[in-house]
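Supplementary Text 2. Reproducibility record for the structural model of the 187-residue chain.

All settings were left at their defaults, and a single model was retained for analysis rather than an ensemble. We include the record here because the model underlies the residue-level annotations in Supplementary Table 4.
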Amino acid sequence: EAVQNPSFAVFAKRLAGEKVACFDPAPVLLQAKADAPGRALYLKTDTHWTPEGMELAAKALAELARQTADLPPAEDRFTSSTTQVVTNLDDVALMLKMPADRQVFTPETVTIRQVRDGAESWRPDAEAEVLFLGDSFANIFSLAPMGWGQGAGLAEHLSLALGLPVDAITRNDAGSFATREMLAKEL
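Retained model, structure tokens:
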């Protein structure tokens, strides 16, 4: 069962009342877990999802976007042929700041699929018709300093699933408030 903020249902209802689509990845992830109970959709000792969980969410978000927005036809310029194996110590272990001789957690290894725009690395496109606002769940496989690779995050995979360029405003801390504040400053 998904753990939700107690006010989520009210929030989603208010958005629906304003004709704003709300995407909740929980049902998609719960169904994927039910279909394959051993499937790892979240990193073992990290507060973030696995590449597979993120890609499932990106595909479902793209479907919702296609259903609710008048988007241009998909282009065939985006690919995800580049894979990279990444090993990192999860964020819970890093936040504990344990001495090296007292590590409780072992590093975890995942395979990410980097998204390409033709021959180039995927980049946000300021002229795109889709604007994505995200936090560390969007960045975990996008930003090399997070330790889980780069070029393979949620915005990239949303672009791949839509077959369209996507612009992105993301920030790791302060959650959705920070990205909305960044958007307001840009506007």
